[in-house]
């Protein structure tokens, strides 16, 4: 269980995290979602006591990070897979971490086996591929068999195989009853990984809810109908109070279900060639919500596809 | 004790400390060998002259000490460390103990190595270590390396970047402290209080060594040899303390 209360972090003139409060429950993967620069990594550093909050507090199972005795046994984190000396072997890296928290040497071997790095353990970490570095990062997070796990953008830059591996791994950790917080700027990734979401933008909490709720709430439904008799159909739909927009050979009807549009078409005797429910893509939904919360706006409108 | 083991594992699981130690040993022994082999005539060989090259090793050992902390910032391992052990002061004190101990051991090996090498090259010279001054000349080198390492760690903690920290350490100890003497009248008076000059005073006392070498610069030291050592150590510990305070206050 992670509890942030009024967490605020200011770096000079920039407010990186602004009065952020949220809770992360055990047993499910919680996604920490926000655009780049929203303050996700800063929040994670605050949780780990690496940065000092300007105000507010974050507690792990009721204790601040500094109050934890042998913290690796309580919290495991992968914030940056590159936090390894490039000339040190994975084994030596894990060994000093284990030693610092009074963990036995055999635990190093166990986590190396767990992430499949045993064969490469004696090689220098600087020569690792991104996927291997990420595995080493996960191995160090799991070293103390912690109940709370933090992962910052763990799938960034990974190949599909690596992405699936990490995703399944995080879900299995949550299924064991652990608290798992994983950050991402990709809603589509979170949609398949996380059950709960903490969404932030510009350091502020936008919402905390389940992933299903978030997608449901934020994606407005439209119905696309294609017909050779648009001239009959269009006024009939408008009369019913739907917002109608011409789109090539068809119409985009907002705020309607396929049933309603079908009924109208039958009533006016219009031939229907296509009738599809379209949801806004997750990315669009996400952008709609975080629109005013993006730190670096591009100059022009983003061109988006219909679905 | 666990923290000492952690820092020991960290230090010896990369290659740079090994290279630094080899380089320190090779440079100092090599230079001493050249000096001693060419000694004679007006150049009197004494126990003190077997140690005139101690600065070479000291520079390399200070670079090693600075690297021990700046590479942690460079590669982010300092964050991994503070994540594993949030008590930053304990971590940094442990690191200092490990690095300073190593510097001391290397310093003694270098000092007695140089002395032994000199005896081998010039078996007829009177190089027996007899007086307290002789002992301080030789064994004192290890102490100077210990303090030098602490000072370098302090600078490394404050500056955090390898290039900056190494530049400050080398320019300060090699250039600034001797160039200050160029300032008319007050220059030499200031020099008597600069830590690396004072460290050399601790080793050599008021003995006249090689012309142009340490101790022959016309500086009149105000402190006795052991007070000089304490002064040098005081400066180093103050810098380290400032570095540890900074590490506690600043974000990692």
Automatic annotation (TrEMBL), chain A:
<comment type="similarity">
    <text>Belongs to the ABC transporter superfamily.</text>
</comment>
<dbReference type="GO" id="GO:0005524">
    <property type="term" value="F:ATP binding"/>
</dbReference>
<dbReference type="Pfam" id="PF00005">
    <property type="entry name" value="ABC_tran"/>
</dbReference>
<keyword id="KW-0067">ATP-binding</keyword>
<dbReference type="InterPro" id="IPR003593">
    <property type="entry name" value="AAA+_ATPase"/>
</dbReference>
<dbReference type="GO" id="GO:0016887">
    <property type="term" value="F:ATP hydrolysis activity"/>
</dbReference>
<dbReference type="InterPro" id="IPR017871">
    <property type="entry name" value="ABC_transporter-like_CS"/>
</dbReference>
<dbReference type="InterPro" id="IPR003439">
    <property type="entry name" value="ABC_transporter-like_ATP-bd"/>
</dbReference>
<dbReference type="InterPro" id="IPR027417">
    <property type="entry name" value="P-loop_NTPase"/>
</dbReference>
<protein>
    <submittedName>
        <fullName>ABC-2 type transport system ATP-binding protein</fullName>
    </submittedName>
</protein>
<keyword id="KW-0813">Transport</keyword>
<feature type="domain" description="ABC transporter">
    <location>
        <begin position="2"/>
        <end position="227"/>
    </location>
</feature>
<keyword id="KW-0547">Nucleotide-binding</keyword>
UniProtKB/TrEMBL annotation, chain B:
<keyword id="KW-1133">Transmembrane helix</keyword>
<feature type="transmembrane region" description="Helical">
    <location>
        <begin position="229"/>
        <end position="249"/>
    </location>
</feature>
<feature type="transmembrane region" description="Helical">
    <location>
        <begin position="52"/>
        <end position="71"/>
    </location>
</feature>
<feature type="transmembrane region" description="Helical">
    <location>
        <begin position="166"/>
        <end position="187"/>
    </location>
</feature>
<keyword id="KW-0472">Membrane</keyword>
<feature type="transmembrane region" description="Helical">
    <location>
        <begin position="138"/>
        <end position="159"/>
    </location>
</feature>
<keyword id="KW-0812">Transmembrane</keyword>
<feature type="transmembrane region" description="Helical">
    <location>
        <begin position="92"/>
        <end position="118"/>
    </location>
</feature>
<feature type="transmembrane region" description="Helical">
    <location>
        <begin position="21"/>
        <end position="46"/>
    </location>
</feature>
<protein>
    <submittedName>
        <fullName>ABC-2 type transport system permease protein</fullName>
    </submittedName>
</protein>
């Amino acid at each position: 269980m992670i509890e942030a209360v009024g967490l605020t972090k200011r770096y000079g003139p920039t407010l990186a995290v602004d009065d952020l409060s949220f809770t992360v429950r055990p047993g499910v993967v919680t996604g920490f979602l926000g655009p780049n620069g929203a303050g996700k990594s800063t929040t994670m550093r605050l949780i780990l006591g690496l940065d000092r909050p300007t105000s507010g507090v974050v507690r792990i199972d009721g204790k601040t990070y500094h109050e934890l005795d042998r913290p690796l046994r309580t919290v495991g984190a992968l914030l940056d897979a590159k936090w390894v000396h490039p000339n040190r072997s994975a084994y030596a890296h894990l060994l000093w971490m284990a030693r610092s928290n009074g963990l036995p040497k055999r635990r190093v071997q166990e986590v190396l086996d767990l992430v499949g790095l045993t064969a490469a353990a004696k090689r220098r970490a600087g020569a690792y591929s991104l996927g291997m570095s990420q595995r080493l990062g996960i191995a160090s997070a799991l070293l103390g068999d912690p109940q709370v796990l933090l992962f910052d953008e763990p799938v960034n830059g990974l190949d599909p195989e690596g992405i699936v591996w990490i995703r399944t791994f995080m879900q299995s950790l949550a299924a064991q009853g652990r608290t798992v917080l994983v950050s991402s700027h990709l809603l589509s990734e979170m949609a398949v990984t996380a059950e709960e979401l903490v969404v932030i933008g510009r350091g502020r909490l936008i919402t905390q809810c389940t992933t299903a709720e978030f997608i449901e709430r934020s994606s407005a439904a439209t119905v696309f109908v294609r017909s050779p008799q648009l001239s009959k159909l269009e006024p009939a739909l408008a009369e019913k109070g739907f917002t109608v927009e011409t789109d090539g050979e068809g119409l985009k009807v907002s705020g309607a279900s396929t049933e309603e549009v079908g009924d109208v078409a039958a009533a006016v005797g219009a031939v229907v060639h296509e009738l599809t429910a379209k949801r806004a893509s997750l990315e669009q939904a996400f952008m709609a919500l975080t629109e005013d919360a993006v730190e670096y706006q591009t100059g022009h409108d983003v061109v988006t596809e219909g679905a | 004790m666990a923290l000492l083991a952690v820092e020991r594992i960290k230090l010896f699981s990369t290659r740079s400390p090994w290279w630094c130690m080899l380089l320190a040993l090779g440079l100092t022994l090599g230079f001493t060998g050249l000096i001693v082999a060419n000694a004679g005539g007006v150049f009197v060989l004494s126990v003190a002259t077997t140690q005139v090259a101690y600065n070479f090793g000291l520079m390399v050992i200070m670079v090693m000490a600075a690297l021990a902390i700046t590479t942690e910032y460079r590669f982010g391992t300092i964050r991994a460390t503070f994540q594993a052990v949030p008590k930053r002061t304990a971590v940094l004190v442990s690191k200092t103990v490990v690095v300073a101990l190593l510097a001391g051991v290397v310093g003694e090996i270098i000092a007695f190595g140089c002395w032994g090498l000199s005896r081998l090259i010039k078996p007829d010279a009177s190089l027996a270590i007899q007086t307290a001054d002789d002992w301080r000349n030789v064994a004192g080198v290890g102490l100077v390396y210990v303090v030098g390492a602490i000072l370098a760690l302090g600078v490394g903690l404050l500056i955090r970047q390898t290039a900056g920290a190494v530049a400050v350490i080398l320019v300060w100890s090699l250039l600034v402290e001797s160039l200050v003497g160029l300032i008319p009248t007050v220059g030499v008076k200031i020099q008597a209080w600069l830590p690396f000059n004072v460290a050399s005073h601790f080793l050599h006392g008021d003995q006249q060594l090689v012309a142009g070498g340490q101790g022959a610069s016309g500086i009149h030291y105000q402190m006795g040899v052991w007070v000089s050592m304490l002064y040098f150590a005081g400066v180093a510990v103050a810098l380290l303390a400032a570095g540890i305070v900074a590490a506690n206050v600043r974000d990692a």
